[in-house]
Fold this sequence. Notes:
By secondary structure, the chain is of the alpha/beta class. The chain has helices at residues 10-13, 34-41, 58-78, 91-105, 121-132, 150-156, 179-189, 262-297, 353-357, 362-366, 379-396; strands at residues 22-23, 85-88, 112-116, 136-140, 161-165, 192-196, 215-219, 230-234, 304-305, 316-320, 336-337, 368-372.
Amino acid sequence: xxxxxxxxxxxxAIDSVAAAPIYLDYAAxxxxxxxxxxxxxxxLSMDGVFGNxxxxxxxxxxxxxxxxxxxxxxxxxxxxxxxxxxxxxGATEANNLAIKGTAKFYQSRGKHIVTCKTEHKAILxxxxxxxxxxxxxxxxxxxxxxxxxxxxxxxxxxxxxxLVSIMQVNNETGVKxxxxxxxxxxxxxGIFFHVDAAQSLGKIPIDVQQLPVDLMSFSAHKIYxxxxxxxxYVGDRPRVRLSAEMQGGEQERxxxxxxxxxxxxxxFGQACRIAGENLTSERDQMxxxxxxxxxxxxxxxxxxxxxxxxxxxxxILNVRFSTNILSGLGGILQRLAVSNGAACNTLTIExxxxxxxxxxxxxxxxYSIRFSFGRFTTTKEITSAIDIVRKMVLQEK
Length: 397
C-alpha cells in the first residue's frame, strides 16, 4: 500500500478527505508483521502443518510440535516455563478466565475483589457480573495522573479479600502502574494478584520470576500478531487453580476447552519472538516518535497532556485539546487514524471512563485524543501528523 506521505505534501493533504490516513492507533491494534504472516500461512493448507494438534497421527503431532514451540516463545518473553501459558481467544477471555476462574474456585476463602476504575471494560464488566453472583467488589479511584496509590490499595484489603486485579499499562493513557509494589503487598497478604498486560507485553520487560504476579493476561494483536488469540499466565509458585469457563475438552490442562488454532498460536509465538529480540530498540524508537510529536504540538493553544510522560510507556500519548477535533466531516479522523478511548467502546456515546476517573470533565474527556505509535510508524508520518494536528487546531480557533 502506498504511503501518501511519499507523494503528497502533508499540508496540502489536510484539504483532501480522500487522502489515505496515517495510522497512529497501534494501541487499538497492530498490523500483523509480514514475518508472522508467513509462519501462519505455513499452518493452513494441505502442504503445511494443518492437522488437529489433539490428533495422534503425524499431522496432529506436527501441529502439536508447532504449538509447543510457540508456547515456549511466549513463555521466554516473560521468563517463565511453557506449561504456565494457557491459550485463549484473546486478552478478554484471559481476563474472564483469570478473574472468574479464581473467584469461583476459591470462593470459600472470601468473596471480596479489588480493582481500579481505570481498568479495561474486560475487567470492569467481569467484576460487575461477579457482583450479581454475590461477590463484593471495591473499585478504587486513581490519582489525577492515573497512578493508583499503593496506600489506597492497602487500606481496602480485608481478611476476605480474594483477588486484586490491576492492569500494568493503561490502554488509553499509557500509564504504568507499580505492579512490583502491589504484588509484594498482595503476596504478603496471601491474596491472588491478576495483571492485565495486553498493553505491556513486548513493550516493556516482563519477568514473572521477579514480579509477584499470580495471573497475567496477554493479547497477540497488540504486538503484531493475529486477532483472536491470547494467553493467560497461570503461576505455579504459589500454584493457582482455576475453574474453567469453557467445557468440552481437556485442552490446556483442563482450563480451556476447544481445538487449538495452530496458525493463530504460531502467529502469536512468532510475534513474541520478534518482540523479544527488538524490545529495547523499538521502545527507544517509540520514545523518539512520541517526544518529537509532542514537541511539535505542545505549544498549540489549550493543548495539555492527560498524564506525565515519565510514568507512561513510550508508545502512547494522550492529549487534551480545547475543542473537539475528532467529530464532523472535517474532523481529524479523515486524516489520522487515532482514537479518544478504547476501541471496544467506540459504539458508546459516553466519555472515556478512564479519563473521567482521573478527574476530567465529560467535555475534557471528549476533547482528548490517544495517539499511539508502532513498528511501522515513520518519521515522515510523524512530521505529517504534526502538520495535520496544528492546522486542525488553528482552524478551530
